[in-house]
Specification:
GO terms for molecular function: metal ion binding; trehalose-phosphatase activity. With 286 residues, this protein is α/β, with parallel strands linked by helices. It is built from eleven helices and twelve strands. The structure holds magnesium ion (MG).
């Protein structure tokens, strides 16, 4: 074991509880030995980036960026899978040559080109109009209306009475949901309207993983929309098409189902960083 390995062990074992670290090490041994046949997919906010008071304030730290850069050099494909616009995800991560999947799978950036699920085009104007309308309604302190290409999200993290805020947002969104082909999604102190299309994070990860011809796919996420990706990977595994591992980043804000649906749980964004750093380090026998 080299000094680097020892140092990584220390970080990782501190970040993840001992039992889990051992099980994870074992599960990921093949990945480290064959990164050219493995893909790593990860949610952004709450997984690679700590939750900030508003989405605009969230950042990817230089340390995390370096880790992502290192895994991208070794692994066949690295995909960032976000509810944000893919262009926003790329701005935050600020690395070329990753695949950026945005709007929960409805569009993605790859090799400098942006691709959309065809039906998504119908929602361009609508999302903008609804964002303007919602910005006028939720202009009080504490609310934050996130304007996206294919949807709109109302964040209420900074509102004091969160239960009341949530009820109020749902009340306002109700007629919009009745009027337009949209569906509602909830996350950590955010409620979102998005196109009612049968495409989610799991579908996007499945398509990109299978197309890349990899043998293993990993997914990390912290919130309800990541469950789709956890389930998609499980299905690929059950069908014998890929070896997969899904990892939830624990948070007392997240629905318990997020933790239940993942294969493993790590305790924080720091732990996710430690895990990815270990995955980018030199293969070795533990
Ligand atoms: Mg998240």
């Amino acid at each position: 074991m080299t000094d680097i390995d020892k140092a990584l062990d220390k970080v990782l074992d501190k970040a993840i509880d001992d039992v889990l670290a051992d099980v994870l090490y074992e599960a990921l041994t093949n990945w480290k030995e064959h990164p050219e046949k493995s893909g790593i997919f990860s949610d952004l906010d709450g997984t690679l980036s700590k939750i900030a008071p508003t989405p605009a304030e969230a950042i990817v730290t230089p340390e995390m960026r370096k880790v992502l850069q290192d895994i991208n050099k070794k692994y066949a494909v690295v995909g960032i899978v976000s509810g944000r616009d893919s262009t926003e995800a790329r701005r935050m991560v600020a690395l070329e040559n990753l695949v950026y999947i945005g709007n929960h799978g409805l569009e993605w950036l790859e090799d400098g080109k942006q691709f959309y699920v065809p039906e998504a085009f119908n929602f361009f104007g609508l999302a903008g109009n609804l964002a303007s309308e919602l910005s006028d309604i939720f202009n009080a302190t504490g609310y934050f209306v996130e304007r996206k290409k294919l949807g709109v999200a109302v964040h209420y993290r900074q509102v004091e009475d969160k239960e009341q805020a949530k009820a109020r947002i749902e009340e306002v969104l109700k007629p919009m949901l009745a009027k337009y082909p949209l569906k509602q999604a909830e996350g950590r102190y955010v409620i979102e309207l998005k196109p009612d299309l049968p495409v989610n994070k799991g579908d996007a990860v499945t398509v990109i993983a299978l197309r890349a011809g990899i043998e293993r796919a990993m997914y990390l996420g912290d919130d309800v929309t990541d469950i789709d990706a956890f389930q998609a990977l499980r299905q690929l595994r059950d069908e014998g098409r890929l070896q997969t591992v899904s990892i939830a980043i624990a948070s007392d804000e997240s629905a318990p189902a997020v933790m239940q649906e993942a294969d493993y749980v790590v305790q924080s964004v720091d732990a996710a960083e430690a895990l990815l750093r270990w995955m980018s380090s030199i293969p070795r026998v533990r």
